[in-house]
UniProtKB/TrEMBL annotation:
Organism the protein comes from: Buttiauxella gaviniae
Name of the protein this chain belongs to: Phosphoserine aminotransferase
Name of the gene this protein is made from: serC
InterPro entries: Aminotrans_V_dom, Aminotrans_V_PyrdxlP_BS, Pser_aminoTfrase, PyrdxlP-dep_Trfase, PyrdxlP-dep_Trfase_major, PyrdxlP-dep_Trfase_small
Protein residues bound to pyridoxal 5'-phosphate: G75, R76, W101, T152, D172, Q195, N237, T238
CDD domains given in the database record: PSAT_like
């Protein structure tokens, strides 16, 4: 059976990329060794690193006054990295709480400042929603405003483009980076763990506006210090070379597919198909308001949760893997990142319709 992996992360990678990596695994560029066994400072790897950065910049049209850093530490590393780099002499920052990950960032921020928490979670007509950006009460003395545009667990998203004047906007794009075009100039910092919509776990990308460098707290660990990382071309310590290389292959694949505009189109079609099947039936349900539905992570419940186990067993047997919802939400969740083709979502919705016919 053709397997489609709906894992929220580490997540499915494009089959073409995996095949290419497999092909060159033991003898990369005719060196008789793999890319993960060579020095990160040699000219061969430097070329991989530079090309990956260039392709990433091209894909998101990152302006030249932004630096791209290839880091360790994941999204959670940046929950500390952001305040340590950006607070300067300020003692507060605005944190918009729209779900599980935004609120985890708040917890970490408490170690470094007194966050002004903006609770953006609302219920509209019995559906979960996020307050529109115009209602976010930003404080004057905050060093920055932090939010998470796509909440991986809650399946809730803010699709608006931020417009907060001079306020430095920081966004955790871990689960939606490269899924649609982005106006980078509206942000001070964007960060994303690679393991959902980019490549293997272990790599974290940070996009930081140049003028925000040079302000790190003196206790900031060097490996989280944007200025140190930038001064060393992200090679202050040994970078996750294999993840960097593989992410570079994903960037090339994305360019071949038509870039983030093409991804956006397919991602919208995938989400429409899946939410459409959920909405059409009383057997399945999703409780997120239409305007805030995530196009990357689609949680859904079966009306009869006693059927959950059977649904998971049968879907797995049909090649539809990792559909179990996060433990704090329950039910099901289908993560449909860039690497998930439309056919994968079609296979899932066909299965769902058939399962309902047999058990509804
Ligand atoms: N932020 C978001 C939106 C996430 O989805 C996750 C992981 O699932 C994280 C942060 C945490 O990332 P990491 O496990 O790389 O620290």
């Amino acid at each position: 059976t053709q397997v489609y992996n709906f894992s929220s992360g580490p997540a499915m990678l494009p089959a073409d990329v995996l095949r290419r990596a497999q092909h060159e695994l033991c003898d990369w560029q005719g060196l008789g060794t793999s890319v993960m066994e060579i020095s990160h400072r040699g000219k061969e790897f430097i070329q991989v690193a530079e090309e990956a950065e260039k392709d990433f910049r091209d894909l998101l049209q990152i302006p030249s006054n932004y630096k791209v850093l290839f880091c360790h530490g994941g999204g959670r590393g940046q929950f500390a990295g952001v305040p340590l780099n950006l607070l300067g002499d300020k003692t507060t920052a605005d944190y918009v709480d729209g779900g599980y990950w935004a609120s985890s960032a708040v917890k970490e921020a408490h170690k470094y400042c007194t966050p002004n928490v903006i609770d953006a979670k609302v219920t509209v007509d019995g559906l979960r929603a996020i307050k529109p950006m115009s209602e976010w009460q930003v404080s004057e003395d905050s060093a920055y405003l932090h939010y998470c545009p796509n909440e991986t667990i809650d399946g809730i998203a803010t699709h608006e483009t931020p417009d907060f004047g001079d306020k430095v906007v920081v966004a955790d794009y871990s689960s939606s980076i490269l899924s649609h075009p982005l106006d980078i100039s509206r942000f001070g910092v964007i960060y994303a763990g690679a393991q959902k919509n980019i490549g293997p776990a272990g790599l974290t990308l940070v996009i930081v506006r140049e003028d925000l460098l040079g302000k790190a707290h003196k206790a900031c660990p060097s490996i989280l210090d944007y200025t140190v990382l930038n001064d060393n071309d992200s090679m202050f310590n040994t970078p996750p070379t294999f993840a960097w290389y593989l992410s570079g292959l994903v960037f090339k694949w994305l360019k071949e597919q038509g870039g983030v505009e093409a991804m956006d189109k397919t991602n919208r079609a995938k989400a429409e198909l899946l939410y459409g099947v959920i909405d059409k039936s009383d057997f399945y349900r999703n409780d997120v308001a239409a305007a805030n539905r995530s196009r990357m992570n689609v949680p859904f419940q079966l009306a009869d949760s006693a059927l959950d186990k059977l649904f998971l067993e049968e879907s797995f047997a049909a090649g539809l893997h990792a559909l179990k919802g996060h433990r704090v939400v329950g039910g099901m969740r289908a993560s449909i990142y860039n690497a998930m083709p439309l056919e994968g979502v079609k296979a899932l919705t066909d299965f769902m319709v058939d399962f309902e016919r047999r058990h509804g």
